[in-house]
């Protein structure tokens, strides 16, 4: 039961505020994790929230200081941060 509470309180990319950074820890969805891994979102990689669309979705993150990636909030919520 504690694991579920830890999962629910885990910080994800969708919780970041503009300009905030985080380190990718893991993913909560197996299918989406494969897609994100292919796009370079690897555990241990730093991400920074660069921009938020006017209505809050999608967002733009910088991955590892190398490139920008646009994600929907539900996709960003799959990426857990340390």
TrEMBL record:
Top-level taxon in the UniProt lineage: Bacteria
Coiled-coil region: none
SMART domains xrefs: FeoA
Pfam families according to UniProt: FeoA (PF04023)
Keywords: Iron
Location of the Ferrous iron transporter FeoA-like domain: 11-82
Signal peptide (from-to): none
PANTHER family: FE(2+) TRANSPORT PROTEIN A
UniProt protein name: Iron transporter
């Amino acid at each position: 039961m504690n694991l579920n509470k830890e999962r629910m309180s885990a910080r994800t990319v969708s919780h970041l505020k503009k300009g905030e950074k985080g380190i990718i820890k893991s993913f909560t969805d197996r299918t989406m994790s494969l897609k994100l891994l292919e796009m370079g979102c690897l555990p241990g990689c730093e991400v920074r929230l660069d921009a938020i669309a006017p209505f809050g979705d999608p967002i733009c993150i910088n991955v590892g200081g190398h490139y920008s990636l646009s994600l929907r909030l539900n996709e960003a919520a799959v990426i857990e941060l340390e």
